[in-house]
Structures are given as C-alpha cells and as structure tokens.
Write a structure and sequence with these properties.
Shape: globular
Strand content: 35-45%
Number of helices: 9
Helix content: 25-40%
Strand order of the largest sheet: 6-7-8-3-9-10
Distance between the termini: 36 Å
Structural class: alpha+beta
CATH class of the largest domain: Alpha Beta
CATH topology of the largest domain: Rossmann fold
CATH architecture of the largest domain: 3-Layer(aba) Sandwich
Number of strands: 20
C-alpha cells in the first residue's frame, strides 16, 4: 500500500499534512504518536471511512479513491473490540464470512482455523459475555482475520486492558501477525507496543510524519528533540558546537563533549539515560549528588544533579548505588551516549 501527500482539515484545523509512506506486503507498520496527532484520522482515510482533501491511497499501484470501505477488503479492529453480545464466539468470528456469502462448510473450517491461530481452540460455543478481556481481544482479532483481509488495521487494540495482560498479549499479537503473514497497520501512542510489534515505525506529530524507520533505529537515532522527548529521553541541554583545532566539541552546563559530526552553532544536546554507567571506566565522566532513586523492577531510575542540572539515568537494579544525598560518578562513551541536534532558526 502507498500513501502520497495525504492532507485533511476539519474547518480551520489541519489534521493531516503531507503524509506519505509505504506498507509492504506481510509487514506490520506502527503509527506512533501522541493523542491528537492524526493517527486515527489517517486510519479512517485508509479504511475508506473518510476522504482526504488531497493526496492518494493506493494498493498495488491502483488508487482506492472512490472505492467504498466494504469493497477494499481491509479489516479494522478497535480498542473496545465491539463484539456482538447476542452471538457466541463462533457467530462473532463467522459474521464477516456470512456477509460475504461463504458456504457453511467453509465458514466452519475457517472459524476453526483462526480460533486455533489466536489460541482459542474449543471456544467456538462460548458466550462472549463470559470472556476475559484477553479472550475478547483474541476473538475480535480472529473476527478481523477470518475473511483474509489484504490489510488489517488495529486502532489501540490493547488500550483498555490492564498493564500485565497488555504486556503479555502484545507478544502474542506479534506472533499471530507474523505467523499469518498478515499486512497490518497498528495505531498506538505507546512506544513499547510499537517497538515490540512493528517491522517499521511511522512516528507522527501534529498531523505530520516526523520520522520513519526500524524500531531500534528510531530509538538509537531520533531525528529531532521532539522524537527524543517523546521516547522518554529528557536529558536535553542547551549547548554550543565549536571547532577546537581539528576537532569539534559541544559545550554544555555539565561539561564539554566531542561532537564530530555536529554543525557549528547553537544546539540541543541529548545525553541518553541508558548509555551511562556508574564509575569512571569510560571516556567521559560526570559527578554529582544522587537526588532521588525510583525502583522499577529490573531497573532503577536515578536522578543525578550535576552543576544544578537534574539528569535522569537508568541502571540495572542489581548495581549498588550510594544513598540518596551522596555523591555519584558516572561515565559514558560520547559516541554512544551523546547526540547533538542543531537549533533551528
């Protein structure tokens, strides 16, 4: 599928501006971004539930303009699952097949196949009102997959589930999509969901595509201050990039660091929270007061105050730290831990 130059406004509000990207066959693409950034509006345009003001959606180079949603052979799954309460599991999963006039034998075989795919073999006769949240989510997914859609679109499908269940199901969902070789678009504001599920991520803000790439590539190399901050990297400092002889350095409130590929001039400097370790073993080091710690299971978030600047770092919880109020020295490889963004004029 190809999207080119999608524009959409609601009155004076610009919802989408110049949105362009591709989805390859069998690929899962995550639309990631904050609430209100245009993800669901874009999904509605792809589904044929709304029309763009400008731009085009096409499938295998064939424009979809004017093709109604029910003729696009796209599946859509929402956060609330929208199961039919008067139908059992079989009736819910079979609904789209019955609307498509499949014969009874084929319907029975396909329902059995997709229930096995989502891990619900033997559930066909169950009342949907007795299902757990995770089971209901799987039935909704089976119903979306049953008609063999060219594309399945999932709009925050795990958003209504509790954290523990959501974390388990996101891995199950990835396996189901991969096993079925299903082309999918997954809408979420949760970066962990997007990174676990997606082959590629399209990150959006204010109706625009901000960055497209592999999950690890976006996390390791955010294109902008917005992307870094959205991904939870808040150690962002004003800096100045200068040439010192044959090398470039960036000066900040907490020190001077190498900046080999940076553009000279004012900059914002990111110090990654997860590429720093206690001690002085690596090339650059900082010392400050350990102001706060927050235990988070396998990881501890530590707030270190250096020259009156508060910085957050993530350490494995087994690493011993001094008591709050004590001094802590950390070190890092600037090539891994420091990224410099030029200030836009």
């Amino acid at each position: 599928m190809t999207l080119r130059g999608i524009e959409k406004s609601f009155g004076a509000k610009k919802a989408l501006s110049g949105v362009s990207f591709d989805v390859h066959r069998g690929e899962t693409v995550a639309l990631l971004g904050p609430s209100g950034c245009g993800k669901s509006t874009l999904l509605g345009i792809i589904a044929g539930l709304d029309r763009p003001d400008q731009g085009e959606v096409s499938w295998n180079h064939v424009p979809l303009t004017g093709i109604p949603s029910h003729q696009r052979n796209f599946g859509l799954m929402f956060q609330d699952f929208a199961l039919f309460p008067h139908r059992d599991v079989f009736g819910n999963v079979a609904f789209g097949l019955q609307m498509a006039k499949w014969n009874a034998e084929s319907i029975e075989a396909r329902v059995e196949e997709v229930l096995e795919l989502v891990g619900l073999s033997g559930f066909a006769g169950r009342d949907v009102n007795t299902l757990s949240g995770g089971e209901a989510q799987r039935v909704a997914l089976a119903r979306s997959l049953a008609p063999n859609p060219r594309l399945i679109m999932l709009d925050e499908p795990l958003g209504s589930l509790d954290r523990t269940l959501r974390e388990r199901l996101v891995f199950d969902l990835r396996q189901i999509l991969q096993h079925s070789h299903q082309t999918a678009i997954y809408v979420t504001h949760d970066q962990e969901e997007a990174f676990i599920l997606a082959d590629r991520v399209v990150l959006m803000n204010a109706g625009r595509v901000i960055q497209i790439g592999l999950p690890e590539g976006i996390y390791r190399h955010p294109d902008s201050v917005f992307v870094a901050r959205f991904l939870g990297m808040n150690n962002l400092l004003p800096g100045l990039v200068e040439s010192k002889g044959d090398v470039k350095v960036v000066s900040t409130e907490i020190g001077v660091f190498p900046a080999t590929d940076a553009i000279p001039g004012p900059a914002t400097v990111l110090l990654r929270p997860d590429d720093v370790q206690p001690g002085m073993e690596l090339a650059c080091s900082l010392s400050g007061v350990l102001a706060e710690t927050s235990f988070r299971g396998g990881m501890v978030r530590a707030k270190l105050v250096v020259n009156k600047v508060a910085l957050d770092f993530d350490f494995p919880s087994y690493i011993p730290l001094p008591p709050v109020g004590g001094m802590l020295t950390v070190s890092f490889d600037p090539a891994q831990a420091v990224q410099v963004f030029p200030v836009q004029n």
